[in-house]
Every structure is written in structure tokens, then in C-alpha cells.
Amino acid sequence: MKRLLILIGKIIVKLLQLMHRNAGNLPGIILWHLSRQKAVSMFKVDCPIIAVTGTNGKTSVTNCIAQLFERSGKKIIINHEGNNLDTGICSMLLKYCDMSGKVKADMLILETDESHVPVVYSQLKLDTLVVLNFFRDQLDRNGEMETLIQKINGFCKTFEGNLILNGDDPNTARLGRANPNNKNVKYFHAEPYAFATKKIFEASEGRFCPFCGEALEYDYYQYSHIGKFICKKCGFGDYEPYITAKDIDLEKPVFTADGHTYSPKLNSIYNVYNMTAVAAAAKLYSIDQKITDGVINSYTVKNGRMENFMLSGNKATLNLAKNPVGANMTLRVMNEMQGEKELLFVLNDNIADGLDVSWIYDINFSIFERVTRVVTSGTRAYDIAVRIKTAGYDPAKIVVRPDLDKAVEELASTQGRKFIIANYTAVQPTRSALKRYIAKHGGNK
Amino acid sequence: MKTIKILHMYADMLDLYGDSGNMEVMSFRCKKRGIDCQIDKYSIDSEMPDFSSYDLIYIGGGADLEQQHISADLLKCRDGIVKAYKNGTFLFLICGGYQLMGKYYRDADGNDIKGLGLFDYFTVAPNSRRKRCIGNIVIETNITGKPVKVVGFENHGGQTQGVKTPFGKVLYGNGNCSKSEAEGYCEKNVIATYLHGPCLSKNPEISDYMIEYCINRGESEYIALEALDDTLEKECRQVMLDRLLKK
Hints:
- Chain A is of the alpha/beta class.
- Chain A has 14 helices and 19 strands.
- The longest helix of chain A is centred in the last third of the chain and has 18 residues, at 424-441.
- The model of chain A has no long low-confidence stretch (mean pLDDT 89).
- In chain B, 27% of the residues lie in helices and 26% in strands.
């Protein structure tokens, strides 16, 4: 039965490839149903598996950890770019396995959707789980965040492997304290950076101690609810960090972890946290320091993550924002930049985005500085326009263009610095629309 | 003209679905008309306010855990809120705020969270966490005196029963219970609803109904509101109505 299912799966993958279709999810979905949701357990994986999960930063951290091993000469398998649901992981394993289901590699590095961690790793033995953060994201798909954390916590109860946790996110750090029997819990932590605040700046979760209900006290907030916290009543938050990022200077940018100085390409506090998680994995697997330096210092993202374009001689930076934290990040970067600029915001409400767009009211648009015009687009172009208007921005300076090509044309019709924020299913179509515009009208003047 | 006084309760804890945006809309629409609007906040550690001195009390929705945290505190405020409500203070309640004004909220494990009992309805959470009412919703309400279609987003496990005067009729979505015909609860000075979105963002008639109520509360001469340019808001709602109601 197992061999037959694998054969069927492989045929579907081949057929899709012959049709020049990306065999991302479909083979997995079919197999999932045929095997009554036991599809992942058909594969035989002998090598260690590292999984990366959390709301923001999964792709970056997964790619960097994969590079650590790749540059160490290991044969690795990684689910590049998404495909992080059970069915996507299943499709990917189908491509790499032999007819008996055996997957040959030295290491599997798998970005895994938060809600699919228990499903996948109850069927595949996991060596290390890296948990980056939990923010409000797609509440309609995932339900309440508490439900999601409980799900992963349920998995952690029987998990004896390494647990690398963001010690500065109470929603993440609680997984360590709730599972005292796991002796392999390791926290990463960061000392305050220049823009850390005493008071909370953006909407957030996890204000109360999950163990005793007391309000958590913070020494500082880095962004959202990420920061140094402690429960004065039961001591939650009092842990020994495995690795600490210090001397963070985002202007250069530079930071130190475990006595090593890193000069990453990306200058955001979020990136410092991501790279500290990578450094923690490197430490755990005793990766050669030169390799770790190389990976952390060279990592840069494209694909709509702070990606730059030239639109008729004007620099345009596109950034993906799936949730308020992501959007607030881009607004901060915009604000910290001198001079006038224009913003294009593309908002979709497809199933993968979450049908609920109320999260845009958790974006702090009142901090807009020197923004001379806003163009909005996407299936919810009007919603984002109304939201920005309500924040006090002059509606006469807002242009709504639900059609993406028209929106890009509108944005490019004036001179000056541009920023573009697009949510999950909007980001690739936005990149394509930008490229179409550039092909037609040119990038550089 | 007098200053409209609003008390936003538990803003730091009951704000899961951008519900604080409702306060942004209220203050935005007042400001456009030159009406002074003062929004005070009350939370667990605050001093007990004089509830009756407010024209409107607003409570948003939160996760189960947060709702449990505030319920004991809310009970301490009971007398003040009841008095204010009887004095004509407007109560604007979303999701958790709506549920907690009823008799009780029975969670998935069968435990009761005591409500304020201001109104007769009660809420029961289904045994399975999967059974939630989630999605876009359109209702039609008559609270302003003429039918208004209100668009929002619902995401609630709790099934609210025993509502005699709902906020509106469900045209699309679930409402008070899974696949019910009625949504929310209302009186002249109460709007309680499951609509997030936030509710007021593309339903300007509802915000204006409350502003008009507040501005005229306790005044002898009736003041009508001047109209605002709501082109964007109305277009925004129309896009959703076209998508959801037209097959």
C-alpha cells in the first residue's frame, strides 16, 4: 500500500512537471487524503531534522540554517519559499524519496507553519525545533493565538529534542517553562537596541503571565511585545540565555553574540533576532565559526522582502507585511528615512491572507512623516484607504486603484522616493506588476 | 457645543481585532465636525470612574484568557454601569463586551464566567474549538430609523441566545448563533454586536447615530449632525456588499 501511494505521488509530481506546473501542494494534498492523513509517516527519514516555526522570520531563518550545513559540506533538503504546510512538506519529500519512501540526505531543514508543527512532527522524528515568535496573524484561519500556542505546547510535552526559543517573547518562552522535563531548552535573547522603549508602542499579545495570571513587567520593549520581561510573582522570564545579542548598532549595522561580532546586511532589530536564532543553531551543531560568520554577514532577502526596484528613475522599496508587526516595521523604516516619499499599499483578503482585514487597524499610521501621497490597491484597496484616512491622513492625497498595474502606473507617475507594502498573496503579483512596468517604461531614466 | 465624553474600557486587553479602530473612527468623525470628543480609558488598575458622567461606554472583544482576566473587575463596576445605562449613557459593545453584559458566558469546558446581567441573553461556547463563526458578515439594522446594511467580520465561538431585540437581521454570515437570522442586541442607547472590522470603519451611519445621540443627551435643543464626505467609506462597503450579496 505504501509503495503504491508513493508511486502514485511520484507520477503526479512527474505529470505536473511535464505540464510545467509547480508540484508544490497538489501531490501532497492527494496523498494526504489517500493515506487518511498519515502521508508524512510513509517516508523514512534517518537524518536529523530541524524545523523552524513562528509568525515572522521563518523563511529567513530556515534559509540561513540550511546554508550553515550546506557550507559545511552536508547534503541538505530544504523547503524553499513557503510550502510549509503538511501537504507542502509531503509534496517535497515525494520528490526526494526513493520508491520505498526513503529520503536520502544528511539533514532536513524545514520551515513549518505554526499550526502544522504537531501534525508533521508526530509523524517524523524531529531533532531541533526553533520557535521565533508569536504575533497576531490570520486570526480567522488559526483561531485565537492561545489555541495555537496550546497546540504547539501539546507537541512539546512529548518532545525531547532541542528547543531553541526566543526568550524575549513570552508567548514563545513559555514553551520552555511549561516543559521542565525537556533538558534541551535553549533561549536566545537580545539586549536593548537604540530604539527600544520603556512603554509598549504597538498592539501586542501576552501581557499576562501564562502561569499565574500576573501582569508581566518589562525592562524594555524592542518592538511589539518582544523585550526583556519578568513575572514578579512566579519568576517566569528568569532564565539563563543560551546566546545573547549585545552591542546592537543598526546604523552600521553590527551586533555581537557569544563574543563574535557580526555585520549583517539587513539593518532591522527583527533581523538581529533572526540572526541570533541562526547563531544559536550554529552553536548547537558546532558549526565552524567562519561558516557562521559568512552566513550571517552575507544573508540578504529579495522576493519582496525589502527588495529594491527602480521605477522610471525613482527608487522603490517593496516589503511584505502579513500582519501589523510587519507593516509597522516598514513604516518605521520609512519614517527613519529623511525626505519626502510616497507609499503604495496593496491589501488582499484571499484565503492565504486571512479573510479578516481588521489587523490594519493595529498598524500605527499616525506616525506617517513626510508622506506626500498614498496609493492603495488589492482586493481590499478601499479598506486600507479608509483606514489611512481614519488615522488622520488627508483623503485628498489618497488614490485608490484596485487594479495592480494601474496602481503601479499611478505610483510611477510622479518623481520621488517610493515605498510599497504588500500582504501575503499580494506580494508576488506586485513584484510582477512592477517588473511589467519596468519592462514597458524602463527602470532607470 | 458640549464635549462628548467616552469611556473606553479595557482598551489594553480587549482589542483583538482592531476594535480600538472604532474609537479612532468616532474621534475622527467628531473632529471633522468640530465636536470635542474626550476618550478616557479604564482598565484593571485604574481608579473607579463615575460611569454616569460619560455619554458613551465602549468595550471591545478579546481572547478567552483576557476576558477571564477582566470579568472579576467588570463585576466590581456593575453598579456604576447599570446606573449609567439607566441614566441614558450609550453602551457600545463588541464581541466579548457584548457577551459579558449578558447573564453568563459558559466556556468550552462548561465553566461559567459571570456576566453583568444587564440584559437577559446568555452565551454558550461550543464543546469543539473548531466550531467558530468566522467570516464576513452583512446585517441590516433599523436603529437609525431607516434600513442600513452594516458590513463587518465575525469571529466568535460563543453562541448567544435569548436576545429579544437584535441589532440587525443577518443577510450574509452567522450572527448570534451559527447560521442564525439575528445579530447582536440593541436598544435606543445600546448597540451590542459581534461585528469586528472594526465595525464603524465602513458604516458611517452607525457612528453618526451614536455621535448624534451623545451630543443631544441631556440637551434641550436638538442638534442634527452635518454630513461628511463619506465617499471612500461608502465605496468600501459597496465593494463588499457587491461581493457578498450578489450571486
